[in-house]
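Holo model, iron/sulfur cluster. Inputs:
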Amino acid sequence: MTVTKFVAACAMASCLSFVPVRAEPPSQAIETGQPTLSLEDLDALLEEDEIEESVASLNSSEVADIIGIVVVLGFAFFSFARKSVALKYISFAMSIAYLGFYKSNLVSIVNIFAILQGNLPGFRHSIPWYLLIGFTVVSTVLWGRLYCGRICAFGALTQVLDRLLPSRLRIDPPAWLDRRLAYLKYGILGGVLVYFLGTGDFLIYRYVEPFWMFTLNGNVVMWTLVAILLIATVFVRNLYCRYLCSVGAALGLISNLTVFRIKRWGECQNCKICEKACEWGAIDGPKISVAECVRCDDCERIYHDQKKCVHWIVLQKKPRAQIIASS
Ligand code: SF4
Ligand code: SF4
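Output:
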């Protein structure tokens, strides 16, 4: 606590000595006749006061940044809730343009370093950062890797590329290889965290994630690695996201807590339509790997399509079959 804070705390203590801020044990209350405040209580009160004061004194560019991130996150969630392909691609465009090239505001391994060290940015100047991280964590716990499926500018870029590039160029790794390669990102996450905790060198991010590319500011080695990655992505869809991304790995671990999971029907036991449609290798027979699923909606739109989904087709045919059997 600084001297200024301490003086302010004493002044506030004298003002607040008649205000029942927190219930104290009866004996203490009887001894002093007044509720008491610890230094931590006062510190917390001062911080709250500072937050209120600073939110009220935001300048126009900070307000614009908050509105920008709220619009992008809000639209991404709206597109997710509507399960609309068109809205999803609009959401991608917003993420690439605004979060990518304009703000370069992506969740990064550097954020994980900061959280591990308890070295968080001041709230006053980083409200968009808190909104992005907060939305990412909460949405992952509730629905899974929504951040990867809608908001991450790099993921959005590779998904758009995947639509634009001719599918004949694509190589689909066999399922057994795909599942093994998916573990690679967890190894990278663990390795980078061990390296950071051992050396304190956060600049390692430049060689394990390509998100800096939106700043257009890298050295020859960094650009060469990104070029190789983007060329490889032409042939293997979502290559970085599926096999190499440490942020995706961290979100994959959190997504094991997912509350609202994708529904599966009894018919999913044998039907392979969704498994083939999933670009993320997240469906294995009747099971969906929550850690790999990015809530892209592709399978969910099939479930809702009564002409494609075997579950609905069976239901529609059942009465006829029963009529034939009983005649
Ligand atoms: S896996 Fe990584 S790069 Fe891909 S969308 Fe998620 S955070 Fe972005
Ligand atoms: S197709 Fe389904 S299982 Fe695969 S990533 Fe999309 S939402 Fe998840």
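Confidence is low (pLDDT under 50) at residues 1-33. The longest helix spans residues 60-82.
Archived with the compound record.
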